[in-house]
Amino acid sequence: MNPAGADLTLAGNANMALYASMIVYTLAMLVFAWHLAARAGQLQAPRAVDRDEVLVGSTVTAAGATTGSLPSAGVRRSTPAEPAFEESPVSAQRGNIALMLTYLATALLVGSVILRGFAVARPPWGNMFEFATAAAAAVGLTYSVLAKRNRWQWLGVFIVTPVLLVLGLALAVLYTEAGELMPALKSYWLAIHVGVAFLAVAFFTIAAAIGVVYLVRLRREEKPPARRGFIESLPSSAALERTAYSLNMVAFILWTFTLIAGAIWAKQAWGAYWQWDPKEVWTFVIWTVYAAYMHGRATAGLDLRRSMSIALAGYACVIINFTLVNLVSTFVGMHNYSGM
């Protein structure tokens, strides 16, 4: 039956674009893994290297100067204790192919979300299926924007894989037919509040991926393995940690806005800024954990490994907020719009 207010033709096209994006993302994941395999085979014996590797957003001039860095740019200075790494044309080509596939897959996914929005004539995040696909699109788009400039091909497999898992979960478990929006969500705050939340989650996700890689890289630096793998070809642990901190800072600012916007919307919809709704509580829990991370990161003498663990705990709270809080009956509240 045609749900009221939904264009089933556009909704079907949105689904086709979603399936196509998953196929292309799968190809990108495989090529990213192939790229990492090539990097692992290029490591040379440890030696001093007279160069700087700029991790985030800088351009190296012919004279060796750097320009145009993003906040907290991570600069890796090779030391006699770490292996030199010069990427081969073959490895670079594989990374670029994977990145191009990611661009295509992300364009298809964004197109799917837009078509779904046109099909239902509203912002396309009125149920858990739409939440999941829109959030995955935000992660893919944010990574695509940052990856080329920062040469983050090495990070691709750690981003594309969870995006694929989310899309698979959305189709297999969360799928909901296109239909009208629930009355409680019919507000311009839906686009503002939820849209900024998606962007914050995208930055949190990329920062969490880099944070996990940082912990592995740090362990390998402290206890060098007998045989080096692709981990040793990645930027230094210090550079990875600084980059994750930069991304978490951006995400934290966006999440702060999300929390405030949600309170304003709650006042308009329910007559009070705060109702102790499970979604409200977990949104504040996420903010609190990341605030603790920011404070710990700025505290002199605190172990950076410990502060990164706090950040990853915060990301675990993000996952709980977007899954269990919406799907488990224990957390039933005014925010339960899963559509299931």
TrEMBL record:
<feature type="transmembrane region" description="Helical">
    <location>
        <begin position="97"/>
        <end position="119"/>
    </location>
</feature>
<feature type="transmembrane region" description="Helical">
    <location>
        <begin position="245"/>
        <end position="266"/>
    </location>
</feature>
<keyword id="KW-1133">Transmembrane helix</keyword>
<feature type="transmembrane region" description="Helical">
    <location>
        <begin position="188"/>
        <end position="216"/>
    </location>
</feature>
<dbReference type="GO" id="GO:0017004">
    <property type="term" value="P:cytochrome complex assembly"/>
</dbReference>
<feature type="transmembrane region" description="Helical">
    <location>
        <begin position="16"/>
        <end position="37"/>
    </location>
</feature>
<feature type="region of interest" description="Disordered">
    <location>
        <begin position="67"/>
        <end position="87"/>
    </location>
</feature>
<feature type="domain" description="Cytochrome c assembly protein">
    <location>
        <begin position="126"/>
        <end position="329"/>
    </location>
</feature>
<protein>
    <submittedName>
        <fullName>Cytochrome c-type biogenesis protein CcsB</fullName>
    </submittedName>
</protein>
<dbReference type="GO" id="GO:0020037">
    <property type="term" value="F:heme binding"/>
</dbReference>
<dbReference type="InterPro" id="IPR002541">
    <property type="entry name" value="Cyt_c_assembly"/>
</dbReference>
<keyword id="KW-0201">Cytochrome c-type biogenesis</keyword>
<feature type="transmembrane region" description="Helical">
    <location>
        <begin position="312"/>
        <end position="334"/>
    </location>
</feature>
<dbReference type="GO" id="GO:0005886">
    <property type="term" value="C:plasma membrane"/>
</dbReference>
<keyword id="KW-0472">Membrane</keyword>
<dbReference type="InterPro" id="IPR017562">
    <property type="entry name" value="Cyt_c_biogenesis_CcsA"/>
</dbReference>
<feature type="transmembrane region" description="Helical">
    <location>
        <begin position="281"/>
        <end position="300"/>
    </location>
</feature>
<dbReference type="Pfam" id="PF01578">
    <property type="entry name" value="Cytochrom_C_asm"/>
</dbReference>
<feature type="transmembrane region" description="Helical">
    <location>
        <begin position="125"/>
        <end position="147"/>
    </location>
</feature>
<feature type="transmembrane region" description="Helical">
    <location>
        <begin position="154"/>
        <end position="176"/>
    </location>
</feature>
<keyword id="KW-0812">Transmembrane</keyword>
<dbReference type="InterPro" id="IPR045062">
    <property type="entry name" value="Cyt_c_biogenesis_CcsA/CcmC"/>
</dbReference>
